[in-house]
Amino acid sequence: MPKKPKKLELVKTNPLFGKFDQVVKAVARSEKQPQLELGDYWGDKSALTYADLFCGIGGFHQAADELGLKCVFACDIDKEARKAYEHNYGITPEGDVSRLQMKNVPDFDILFAGFPCQPFSIIGNREGFGDARGTLFFDIAKILKAKKPKAFVLENVKQLVSHNKGKTFERIIEILEDELGYDVEYQVLNAKDFGLPQKRERVFIVGFRDSAKPFEFPSGDKKMKPLSDILEKKPDERHYVSERIRKSRHTKHKAKKSPMIWHENKSGNVSSHPFSCALRAGASYNYLLVDGERRLSPREMLRLQGFPDSFEIVCNDSQTRKQAGNAVPVPIVKAILEKVIYAEQNQTERATRAA
Ligand SMILES: C[S@@+](CC[C@H](N)C(=O)[O-])C[C@H]1O[C@@H](n2cnc3c(N)ncnc32)[C@H](O)[C@@H]1O
């Protein structure tokens, strides 16, 4: 079985951590009042820079921007994702991570990587490191080794934790801790617990170079938004399914409420919920339907991942659906980053005071 996340007892008992309670209260307040300026408590965070590997359309970037962090590097092999990223964030991502030369990657404080999940996921072939794409984790490790950032946040499907009886994940943690010297914690978090009407469970792995960082995962106790907040009032006609598909769904299922997302599983069973099942990049054409009538629009899919409407769609429907299905939920990343920033700033403050 993979190692359990460590507890941070040490942090709470160390007398150097005099400001711990005060900052914890600030974090609690900021969680209740999202409009609160975190800078009021933690000073200038623009000093913290990050690299956005496998950046996609920038779920990490969107959250980091909202907290004032600065992107210094991004890469993604997909041309369309790069186009959307560049248009929205004004940064041109590099391409294939495995072809990067370390001398061309600038230094940065935090590494983000939602690395491709196909080799580990139940959707894929469960071939793990035997699949060439699985080796992309080793490209992350290579960059961590060369650049030695203060911290990292990795994301993947939750099946990564149990893949190959936990051996794949254990090896990943072993490399991060023993070979690269990071203090690592991980947790499976669900987008539904961070306010989004989407059941999407992902494992997040967070590491710090300094083992005394007071990091704890966010609790995820936000109330789920109603679907009506996500759905477009006048969706375009092109999102409606054919009469044949509509009939087949309505013959199989009757929903008690509306709006609901109707989900057809692999065996053809249909169920409906006041939230969406996990969006996927390569989902079959009619896998999720609003009220059994129409597909989610690209804008609705972006909203289900927590992207604001200020995120501009520049690719076609099919590319944007794929990109949204691949993205990391913005509010989860934001909640984790608040804790990472707190850990980083708190430590810096203590180190300065102790010096
Ligand atoms: C799970 S998605 C990450 C999405 C991203 N976190 C977001 O919020 O949009 C994985 C991404 O890795 C990219 N990718 C796959 N192989 C790659 C490679 N060799 N080099 C760089 N990016 C790669 C894919 O194009 C895809 O956008």
List descriptors.
alpha/beta, DNA Methylase, Chain A, domain 2, 2 domains, 6-stranded mixed β-sheet, 4-stranded antiparallel β-sheet, 12 helices, disordered N terminus, binds S-adenosylmethionine
Number of helices: 12
Sequence of secondary-structure elements: HHHEHEHEHEHHEEEHEEEEEHHH
Q: Which class of the largest domain in CATH terms?
A: Alpha Beta
Instruction: Please tell me the overall pLDDT.
Output: 83
* First-last Cα distance: 41 Å
* Ligand species: S-adenosylmethionine
Radius of gyration: 21 Å
Number of strands: 12
Structural class: alpha/beta
User: Considering the protein shown, what is the CATH homologous superfamily of the largest domain?
Assistant: Vaccinia Virus protein VP39
Whole-number count of domains? 2
